[in-house]
Amino acid sequence: MPHRPRVLIIAEAANPEWVSVPLVGWSLAQAMRRRAHVHVVTQTRNRDAFVRAGLVEGQDFTAIDSEAVAAPMYRLANLLRMGSGKGWTMVTAIASLSYPYFERLVWKKFGARIQAGEFDVVHRITPLSPTIASSLAPKVAAAKVHFVLGPLNGGVPWPKGFDSERRREREWLSYVRGAYKANPAHRKMLRSSALIIAGSRHTAGEIPAAHQHKTVWLPENAIDPARFNLTAPQDLSGPLRACFLGRLVPYKGPDMLLEAAAPLMREGKLVLDMIGDGPMADDLRAQAERLQISHAVTFHGHLPHDQVQPVLARANLMTFPSIREFGGGVVLEAMALGVVPMVVDYAGPGELVTGETGYLIPVGPRPRIVAAFRAALEALAADPSGLPVKAQAARRTALADFTWDAKAARILAFYAAIPDLQAA
């Protein structure tokens, strides 16, 4: 593998102006561009954002117009998901039907160049879902070029006791999600991949045993130090300041946080900033009124990305009781600012936080999570002296191990190890 390999990155979703998966696709592709000879292939909806970011079409990236299939399927997904921000398994299922057309156009555009040996690696970064098969993988492998898949992430099981939240999220298809493993195209993709990057321990565990030797773990999310460049002062002179950052939806547990923190808030020992919007917003405000804590909680609603950092950096704690978080990017953002995370020890956040950098609350039924959060917050309100040390460790870890550049460096090391993986 050359020191600066020639990489064709497939990132159907990649956009610097959006969040979630498109921001992951963009950020990782950009970090790879700084370390390798990269050409990015994305969907046409991202073209203008790429150009505004300074990339040159044809030279740095190619936009594939798959709207003939993608647009009507997107409208169908929005219809079937039964509510904005809900039914993500349905959205992914519909995407798995429309995505093959995108890859068909990618091969039509780049197939001859791949077969001619212009690229050392073809790396599909997005979609992240392990359920969406790639028809490119066997074609690239047949051309004697390494096909790399990932980071793959998703499908974390719902914890026991949260079926009502599952139904409120319209996650009907999640009960039969495992059916994707029977798809012959999915099995062929795994066989044809030279390297599989799993974005979570759960996803790594879902890869069949026959392919474990070429599967590596690398958390999906990372941070851009330029976007998170403040440092939380960790002021311990007043009441504890906690912050919640995320969509106001059942599985992220904002209602559990209000219930857990209510006694301290009524006593004036804790104040809370809630950043985000969603279908629970009105219910949460009503809950705050019932609990008599409205004076101690500020609902900021949705904030532009550049306005999130100043609010988050005021906090001592990032309190995040999500019970089904695949990546946990907001946890890394808090750590980068020196805000100590308190998270449920399950899925993504549980893989990012350690006892040195934050507080891990055991997963369990709702009453147990509420009680454990309350106990941890009460202990800190009584003695917050350990927070500055954890804050420093969290910031140090985020900036050393969880930047996009650090992730790109690890991926290049994975590329270099492909011959050893194939020989295993």
Automatic annotation (TrEMBL):
Protein species of origin: Paracoccus liaowanqingii
The keyword Glycosyltransferase appears for this protein: yes
CDD domains: GT4_PimA-like
SUPFAM superfamilies the UniProt entry points to: UDP-Glycosyltransferase/glycogen phosphorylase (SSF53756)
Protein name (database record): Glycosyltransferase family 1 protein
Molecular function in Gene Ontology: glycosyltransferase activity
The entry's keywords: Glycosyltransferase, Transferase
PANTHER family: D-INOSITOL 3-PHOSPHATE GLYCOSYLTRANSFERASE (PTHR12526:SF510), GLYCOSYLTRANSFERASE (PTHR12526)
Residue span, Glycosyl transferase family domain: 240-377
One Pfam family hit: Glycos_transf_1
UniProt cross-references to Gene3D superfamilies, sorted A to Z: Glycogen Phosphorylase B
